[in-house]
Amino acid sequence: MDHRSGLNLEYNFGSDHRRESLRSKYRPFSHFDNMSEGISQNLDSPTPDRAVDSRRGSVLENLVGYQSRRRISEREKRELESEPLSPISSTKKKRKKIPITANLFGTRYEVVRHMAQRAGLTIQKEDDSSCYLIWSDSFVASDVITSLKDYQKINHFPGMGEICRKDCLARNMRRASRYLENDYNFVPKTWILPSEYSELQSYYKDLKRRSKKKTFILKPSNGAMGNGFGFSFKFSRIQVSLFRIPFRIILYRNAEKIAQSEQTVVQEYLEKPLLLEGFKCDMRIYVLMTSCDPLKLFLFDDGLIRMSTEKYTPPNEGNIEKLFMHLTNYSVNKHSENYEKSGKIDTGSKRTLQYFREYIRKRDIDDKLLWRHIIDLIIKTMIVAHPHVLHAYRMCRPGVSTGKDSVCFEILGFDIMLDKKLKPWLLEINRSPSFGTDEQLDYDIKSTLLYDTFKLLNIRASDKRRNMAEQKAQAQKRLFQGRVKKELDITDIQKKKISLSKKKDELKDLLQKVKKDAARDYYETQNCGGFQKIFPPPDRHARERYAKLMSEVHKISMEGLGKASGAFSQEILRTYNNPLKEEDILDLLAQCEADEKLTDKNLSKNKFSHDLRHSRGFPGFKKSTEEFDEDSDDDYDHDDPDGGEDCESDNMEEPFAFRNGTRRSRSECSTQRRKLSRPSSKTHKIGRTTSEERFGCQAKQEEENLKRTLSALNDMRIKFPGKTDEEAEFILDKVRHLFF
């Protein structure tokens, strides 16, 4: 049970003692660590009964102390002793609950406020930028996201305009379909005017040459709710102003009459849509994105079916101007006299997605297969947006590691239309879908959507305190870690030890991250409400397929960057394709600790042998008695009982590296040193072997080279690049110290 996150996670990995010991060693603190607080008591502190007696006694003493002023009668004493006193309460006062504040000044929808309050949020009366939750119906600037603290949440991602603007969506989809034609074929042909005017004219001429007729619908590059809609056909041109919003219905005999200067998007009209009771319809599907690094998507299980208000017939010269037949937008059709409001889910001009699925199911249509196709369309669309959103988010939040809780989330409205063959077509995406509740059906769906969103975000009052503690710990780590100095005499074993220590720290951090991700996933599973997690998908094969597709899309978006593109694609595959599990990291930690122990053992052996060889080269070194007992048969000699004192006196007179005159051989000095360490004997031992004589000559040659080197160091002044004279002198002293 993780006391901090409130999650009950159990990991069952068998009876592997090594892994279990590591788990107990690296587990986070839990509520079991604090159980002793309620058990341990201070034996010196009085019990409640003793506290009452002590209080009564102190009162009596105080009263007796005032006998000089007023004498207390025996009756008053008896009454005071018999008076009951309440024991001292040992319970602490409850800490005041910290409110989870929400800044909703940026929304005009009351349902957002109601659901925020229902989810436990406290709505601020002022525009406070330090609130836990910030909601805005409009675009959010990048600097606002940059200024957010890690505990805060805002309802927009940067860079989402790459799929929410109609012109950007068309451009990105066309680019993806150029390389991945089989995956990105669910968007109608689209042209961005005026930049793609010539391509539109070429397409129209080709249709004319083949005697084919097409209907074109004109949309604003960045509009919503039917604003600025235009309609194009092939014969005449008509302009009308309808209701309070001007709608332009432009009919063209041919596409050559379309003006180049208009900032519009021209799209092929789907002439054979799936009809619901004879009316044209489309679907509004809600998708929640909680993270872009890594990408996390949730699909809401209900939505809206929006219907036209006139029976549909294919576009022709006589009906092309009928908006209520060809458009399904609620903002347009609500002005129709045929618009029907109904309190039931099976009647009216607006219905639920659940009703639609039941409707097609009754007509022997596999709604589960259709739903999988819609999910596939949504995931592929978000994969196209991912490079842009990820880049923008990392620019706004520099230094944030992958997998850290995102400060952004977004509810997207996907407008999808089905053709007669039940193929889903993506029309547009809204990053600020309407949360208007003109009908009870709207309130039921949108209130549940918002409430489940707030619960899924898991905003806690402790997030702020935990974030401040993490920032303080990181600051202290940067402050006290100091600068790592490179040792001049570092060995390969020491390098390996440093590498293992670094790897061990990285594995510990990764283990905590994996545990945190597992806790988050568990919470999302238990509190998803009406949401279904669609990315990363639970199926391994689907996850690998989408990871490969995402890698390809990132390569396309980073075309021309060379190695950077390939490295980032590999990062994508590692993140989504082969995530490490807790048991894998525990095994790596166990192996790392085993290697570390072996390295320490080798390092201690190497240090002992190094010190032994180094000490034998100095005449002042004396072997211990125990060491002589072990090798006395080979090395002990008594040929010259008087020579030891001369050798020792020489050593006391001058340092080893600066003695004048002819140097004694190593075997001679060694023999004389041993005479000082042990009483002489009349027993004669055999002389040194030929290998020992060679070793003595080699040591003598090394000492001569060392003597010349140190003499040269004393005679010259060495300049080190980038070092001051004092630092250079310090390095030389350290070199001398190593060899003395």
TrEMBL record:
GO terms for molecular function: ATP binding; tubulin binding; tubulin-glutamic acid ligase activity. The keyword Magnesium does not apply. One of its GO terms (biological process) is microtubule cytoskeleton organization. Residues 458-520 form a coiled coil. Residues 71-81 have a biased composition (Basic and acidic residues). The keyword ATP-binding applies. PANTHER family: TUBULIN POLYGLUTAMYLASE, TUBULIN POLYGLUTAMYLASE TTLL7. This is DgyrCDS1058.
